[in-house]
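explain this.
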Amino acid sequence: MSIEIFAPITQLGLQKRTILAKVTLAVCAVLVGAIAATPVRAQAQLPGVNLGDTNFEDSFAGPGFLLEEFPDVYVSGTLKDSNGATVPGSNTTTTILTTSHLVYVSNKRPFGAWIGGEILFPMADVQIKRAQGVDTTERGFADPILGPIALQLAPKKIGTGVFVHRAEFALTIPIGKYSDQRPVNIRNHFVLINPLYALTYEWKSKFEV
């Protein structure tokens, strides 16, 4: 289950928007600076980028702020061991996750595109109940995702539809605790580097790709 809640910050006064912009950029700078002291590791897994949260009208954006929340609930009735084999018995995994997403897009267009950045802060509660062994719970902040550089192109009319696209450079920053001795970790303890390109073509306001 996934629910998207959008709350554009468009009603703020100029002074408050300026302060929020400075705070957003300052947090970006601090997180980028933390990378220099963080070891880079490799691990086979899905990338920590958008894999379908913004299903509709992705890449539609313009100058200003955006704040949105992505709550998710995931329940599994099986567990896999390190070899990919199913662990026998009644084993369940329940994950409750919510991600806070803050975006700022400036009015400047140095490359013909609005320049901006974003921060995603996930919070997770993971519970594993095993037929053999002690039940395990891990909760707290997961590794944040930082998009310090994003280029947002303005909508362009092509044929009978509208085409929009955005290019971004995203980083996952390991800031929390991690232990390979624990059965559950909500943090990866390594840096993920993910370039991202999103596009949408919408026509007649009814269909899109």
